Amino acid sequence: MNRSTNRMKITSISLLITVLLLTGSFTLFAQPAANAYPDSLAYFNKLLSPPEMKEDLRVFYTIRQQVNSGLYIYRTKKQIDSLYGWANKAVSKPLLVKDFYKIILQLTDFEGSVHNYTEPSTGFMNALKKQPTFFPYPLTYINGAIIFDGKHPEIPAGSRIRSMNGRIDKEMLPAFYKYFPADGFTQTEKRSASVEQLAGWRYFIEYGATKVFKIDYQPPGSAKWKSIEIPAVSFAEQEANKKNRYSAPVADKLNYKLQAPYSFEMIRPDAGLLNLRWFGFAGGSGDPAFQPYVLFLDSVFRLLEQKQIPNLVIDIRNNPGGSDPLFEQPVMYLTDKSFKENLETRIIFDPSNVPFENYFWGVSTTERMDSAGLAAGKAFLNDYFEPFKEGRSRQQEKYNPVYYPKSPGFKGKLYLLINENVASAASHFASLVKAYARNVTIVGVETVGGYYVHNGHVSTVYELPNSAIKTKFSVVYVVQDAPELPDQPKGRGVLPHYEIWPQLDDFLKQRDTQLEFVLKLIEKK
């Protein structure tokens, strides 16, 4: 240790003693953040005073009321006001940023929009990811349980983890639901994400840093429980271990980051499989990547017609969404009816100005928008929406065209594979398929994106003044072209005709439960 470091420590201790004598124990708690190095986690996870948090809450709520058109879709104003009343009482004493962040999370989750996303400051996240406080191995959700999905010399893949650092799974997992907002009242993604994202950075937010994870686990096929301590690792090491997950032969095929955005194969002589992994590979019809996609789809449906293939499986599992008009393109080959992307869209602010520009960050939490980007964004809003009138501005009709059936249309038996991670444009695609496709059977798990409505199209990110917490939400309320169906209650995602979750036996055999179920349906037919 060099002399300058020693002097720094002596100065810090002297200052701490002086402040303690002057102000008492409250400052003892605040002091570590004040003396932390500028790039340390303690520096960003500072102690916030009640006035600072109340100001952040006021700014946060004002922005939501005047910018977020989906604020009162699933909740009444009375319900929203009541929750903010609770939040204001909860900040009556100083809190660390991470604890205030958990309050903000509950506010955003309560609204009911999958496009809501909130995270601590960029500095906080960068500093946290450097800490050796992450669980090393991937986990997966099966039948309500935490299942070990890694490769470890003592813990077999498929083992059930009952507790982690003394916390029982059934009590621990619901605490993570607030991190994963869903459209309406949907719970499916919350269940699986609470397991699969359990031991990432969110674990630190909930329970603080840990150097060791003590877990109780039960190997598959065993009646005995065992315990083991596993040293924590850095975020980079955890990410590297995900590449070696036991379920990779199945899971990697559904990973849009590892697979082509679209592909086709014959999975049996009488059935084709169209994989639609992501609708975000092109920014619109003017994007150079759009036309090859249109030609690809045409070639697939021509092949199905020429070979008289009676069955088509479309797999959109884990598709996070993307851009219009990409997701409408396949639907035109599956229906006899015309349709639109939406029946109505609106924002609740004047599109000629970016509201609360002094708090505006951009459209992504990872990069702050510069002046050129802001100018382009304003030009886009002015072009995309009609003039502001009576408290709202509607989408220009030219951006909501009618889509007509295409030839050659597929007239055989259609199967759509969905799961709880299907969101945004992908769940909108599933909604259109359920509403308009010929002879369709949907298999899998309820989507996190809604069937009838959602907030989407345009994302905004705002940064709160004191905590530097960033909150992201979509400003456009969208009423989808989704006719009412008896098996589609309001406030829910697209519901399958057959609810099929992955099963442990299939996991152990590295077999795709949901696809296998579809193949059995085809076989029976």
Question: How are the elements arranged and paired?
Answer:
Blueprint: H1 3-23, H2 25-35, H3 41-44, E1 47-48, H4 50-67, H5 77-90, E2 95-96, H6 97-111, E3 117-119, H7 122-129, E4 139-142, E5 145-148, E6 160-164, E7 167-168, H8 169-172, H9 188-196, H10 201-207, E8 212-218, E9 226-231, H11 235-242, H12 248-251, E10 262-268, E11 271-276, H13 290-306, E12 311-315, H14 328-331, E13 339-340, E14 342-347, E15 360-362, H15 371-384, E16 393-394, E17 402-403, E18 413-418, H16 424-436, E19 440-444, E20 453-463, E21 470-480, E22 498-499, H17 504-508, H18 513-524
Parallel strand pairs: 11-12, 12-18, 18-19, 19-22
Antiparallel strand pairs: 1-2, 3-21, 4-5, 5-6, 6-7, 6-8, 8-9, 10-11, 13-17, 14-16, 14-21, 15-20, 20-21
Helix pairs in contact: 1-2, 5-6
Characteristic terms for this protein:
alpha+beta; six-stranded antiparallel β-sheet; 18 helices; disordered N terminus
Overview of the structural elements:
- There is one protein chain.
- Helix content is 36%, strand content 20%.
- It is α+β, with helices and mostly antiparallel strands.
- Strands 3, 14, 15, 16, 20 and 21 form a 6-stranded antiparallel sheet that branches. Strands 4, 5, 6, 7, 8 and 9 form a 6-stranded antiparallel sheet that branches.
- The longest helix has 21 residues, at 3-23.
- The radius of gyration is 25 Å and the shape is globular.
- Mean pLDDT is 92; it is low at 1-34.
